[in-house]
Here is the input.
Amino acid sequence: MEIEELNFKFRELEKALDLEKNKIIIEYCDSKNQHQVGSVFTDHIGSIMIEKISYTKIFRVEDYACKYFGSELNKDGTPKKNGNKRTAYQEHEKK
Here is the structure.
């Protein structure tokens, strides 16, 4: 075995490990998620209609969470006329 082959195998192993980590993060976040695409999510800024859900690490509390992206809504639940979209995060309690 040459060093190039060893390094290639290490890189492949790291890729496989990263994929497994991401699967576990998604499973963890989904287990805490109470919202689906098409539902309304409200945070301290206002409400959005969820169009996309992704996953992120929240460093200040060392946790992972769902990140929601969607159209901003008025207080009556209708989309804002300006068509603005934004990202919102589920709030977590500090540990």
